[in-house]
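User: I'm writing a tutorial on reading structure tokens. Could you give me a worked example: one chain, its sequence, then its tokens, then a sentence or two explaining what the tokens reveal?
Assistant: Sure. Here is the example chain.
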Amino acid sequence: ELNLLWTCLRSPLDKQYTALTCHQWVMVIKTLAYGLLITALGLIGYFATGQVSKTALIPCVFGLPVILLAIFTAIKPGISKQTTIAALIIALLAFGGTVAGLSKLAVLLTGGEIERPIAIIVQSIMAIASLVYVTSSGLSLYGQKSR
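And here are its predicted structure tokens:
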């Protein structure tokens, strides 16, 4: 199955190897990109702070399941709506947990002093990425449902 997944990812429009529709491929790529981004944010935050606090890895707790959901969708196209909804729920939780960082980012950008500026930057990027993912994927899912 991993060989099939690799073949599908290399040639997503080749109907011989995949049962995913073009819309499903877009969702897989969007979900995978979002998961990779927030996982990378967690790792960058952890190493940028000198590996002092394990809480810097919290974005990875959200990102890794999202990555797995994208992979499951690519392997089993019949569950794409369920995996998209699960990824949207994770992204909503991520947004809810990080949106407070946006107000602190405004203080930081205007020259104010903030405790743990790297954490605020990571939270803000995660909040914005989560909002963009929820908005685009939610609209996409809604658009497909109304067809």
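What the tokens reveal: Residues 45 and 119 are 7 Å apart (CA to CA). The radius of gyration is 17 Å.
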